[in-house]
Every structure is written in structure tokens, then in C-alpha cells.
Specification:
343 residues
Length: 343
């Protein structure tokens, strides 16, 4: 819940608090929320700069770096890591948690590059693939880079406790499931395998995110990036499945509706966003393919939309009763997590 000066001013006009209390409360809330990511210009600059730096050392790495050789790549990665750690310490000492967390994450993201360089240096790199393929292709020998990244990520999370550090760990876990599946399949990394592995890996990540969410409910939001990676993997794998069955497509629509409900229940918008995208995609398919010549379809959709709005009115009217009865059916840890988020 975002509290504005205007709302506090309204509370003053209604004699709920004094103007001095309103000013003090606003200053207190501002300090308390300064380390919570939000869509402000300052935070946009933080994340934009950090993601550019991280992308430069990961997704946008070009073949020019291969000219440095294994020893050169290790040396440069170590130098970058030292600079990143120094900046992290500086920001941390000044209580600038968000930029400190981004810089610490930058150090973790250098790990695959350093391990790649080390393997090249030692002459144990198994084929002619290059580092930039790490984020594009599935291969078993990426596992050394992934295990190293998980180890460094765990150490950095233990040391600094910044939630953004979970991001490279979650992405690496996703990568690892794909590479392990390819290895178990004898090196087979077909498109069908990728879709299926992504689907089930996403479910596992979502389960892990719920677990982390429950355990860290009174601390920082360490589960956010695991939820995001899990939902992306699951929804992407689900949406890319091919089927000529109308029943299968309807089940896909129902799963997306369940995702929306799950997002509302857990107060996680990522479920709602992707569930809404999938639901709209199914309705678009009905409009363009199944009922392309039917004048009744837009009328039916309008009725469904108005009916959904009416359900919203009923929900608002009976929300407390429905929420209370529904939450009694949930496991105690999940119930405690949701109660801690009630506003």
C-alpha cells in the first residue's frame, strides 16, 4: 500500500492525526521504503546502469574477448570482480542497498566467464564452443560454470543478504535443469526437450520460491526473482507446447486463469501478468480462428466481461468472509505468509 502526502493531508483534515504527525509519518515512511525497489527515476537509473554492465559481461559478450586467451579472460574477470566488490563495500557502507546489491550481483555474473577462461587456460575446454553460446545453447559442459555460479552466488547472498543476488542464482538453476536434461538424454537438446524441461523446471522453481517466501516473510523479498524465473520458465514452456486439440487449448486457458488466481492469493503480480497474457491469447485464438465468422462471439465476450466486473463487485462486498474461509483450507505456513501481507 503506497501512502501519499495527499492521503496524509486528508487524514489531517479529518482530525485523525495532526499536521506535525503527518509530516513526521511521511518522513518515516520515506526512509523505510528507500531500499524497496519501485518505479522511480532514481531506481530506474540504478537498474538500467546495473543491467547494462551485467549484460556487457553476459548476454552481449562478443568474440573479441577470445583474443585475450584463457589467462587474459581470467585476469580481466578477476579485475572486474575486484572493482565490483570494492564498489559494493562502498555503497553498503553508505546504506545504499539497491546499488550495492546490483554491484554484488555483477560480481556473481562474472563467475561463468572466469570459469570459462580458466578451462581455456588449462586446456580442458571440450569443444570449439565459445562463451557467448552459454546463454544461447544447451550443452552438458556448461555445468561447471553453473555450479561455480551457484557456489559464488550462495557465498554472496550469505555475506550481503541483498535480494537482487537471487536473480543470477535463479537463472542459473533454470539453465542447469536444461543442461542436465540434455546430458541425460545423451546430448539431445531438441526443441521438444527444451519446452518440456522448461515447463517442469518452472514448476520446481515456483515450488522453491514458495518455500523461500515462507522462510523469509519477515525479511527482504528473496523470493521475487525465483518466482519470476519460475513463472517465465513454466509459462514459456506451457505456451510453446503444440496441440491440435481444442480441449488442450481450453485446458491451457484454465491453467492461465489458475495462475491469475494464484497471483492474487500470493500477492505476486508476475502470475497475474502472464496468466492474463495467456488468457488473452486464447480468447484471441477463439476470435480469429474458431468464431471468426460468428457475430455472437463479441456479444458473448461482452457479457463475460460485464459478468466478471459484477463478480468483482460481489468479491469486494464479501471479500473478508471469502478470504477468511478460503485461507482456513491452506497449510499453516502459507496462511501465516498471507496474513503477514494483509493490508
Amino acid at each position: 500500500m503506497h501512502v501519499t502526502k495527499k492521503q496524509l493531508g486528508a487524514a489531517v483534515q479529518n482530525n485523525i492525526i495532526s499536521s506535525e504527525q503527518a509530516a513526521a509519518l511521511y518522513d518515516f515512511l520515506t526512509v523505510q521504503s528507500q531500499d524497496i525497489p519501485e518505479f522511480s527515476f532514481t531506481h530506474v537509473l540504478y537498474y538500467a546502469g546495473g543491467l547494462i554492465a551485467i549484460g556487457a559481461m553476459t548476454l552481449f559478450m562478443n568474440l573479441g574477448w577470445e583474443s585475450f586467451g584463457g589467462a587474459g579472460i581470467v585476469s580481466i574477470a578477476a579485475l572486474y570482480a575486484a572493482i565490483g566488490l570494492k564498489i559494493t563495500h562502498t555503497f553498503s557502507a553508505r546504506n545504499l542497498a539497491i546499488p550495492a546489491g546490483i554491484c554484488a550481483t555483477f560480481v556473481v555474473c562474472l563467475t561463468p566467464l572466469a570459469i570459462y577462461g580458466l578451462q581455456q587456460w588449462l586446456g580442458v575446454w571440450p569443444d570449439d564452443s565459445v562463451y557467448r553460446d552459454y546463454h544461447r545453447h544447451i550443452q552438458w559442459h556448461w555445468l561447471y560454470m553453473e555450479l561455480g555460479t551457484l557456489a559464488v552466488g550462495a557465498i554472496m547472498i550469505w555475506r550481503y543478504r541483498y535480494p537482487f543476488l537471487v536473480m543470477p542464482v535463479a537463472v542459473t538453476l533454470w539453465y542447469m535443469t536444461m543442461d542436465i536434461a540434455a546430458m541425460l538424454a545423451g546430448g539431445d537438446s531438441t526443441w521438444e526437450l527444451r519446452k518440456s524441461v522448461s515447463l517442469y523446471a518452472g514448476l520446481l522453481l515456483i515450488g522453491l520460491a514458495v518455500r523461500v517466501d515462507i522462510r523469509s516473510q519477515h525479511k527482504a523479498d528473496y523470493a521475487f526473482w525465483i518466482y519470476l524465473s519460475g513463472v517465465l520458465a513454466f509459462w514459456g514452456g506451457l505456451s510453446l507446447q503444440t496441440s491440435d486439440s481444442e480441449l488442450a487449448k481450453f485446458i491451457y486457458f484454465c491453467i492461465n486463469l489458475i495462475m491469475i488466481g494464484t497471483g492474487v492469493l500470493l500477492t505476486r503480480r508476475v502470475f497475474v501478468v502472464f496468466g492474463a497474457l495467456g488468457s488473452c491469447g486464447y480468447l484471441g485464438y477463439l476470435a480469429s480462428d474458431v468464431f471468426s465468422d460468428s457475430w455472437l462471439f463479441p456479444v458473448a465476450l461482452t457479457a463475460i466481461g460485464l459478468g466478471t466486473m459484477y463478480l468483482g463487485i460481489l468479491w469486494q462486498k464479501h471479500e473478508k468472509t471469502i478470504t477468511h474461509k478460503t485461507r482456513l483450507l491452506l497449510p499453516v505456513p502459507v496462511r501465516q505468509l498471507l496474513d503477514a501481507r494483509m493490508i
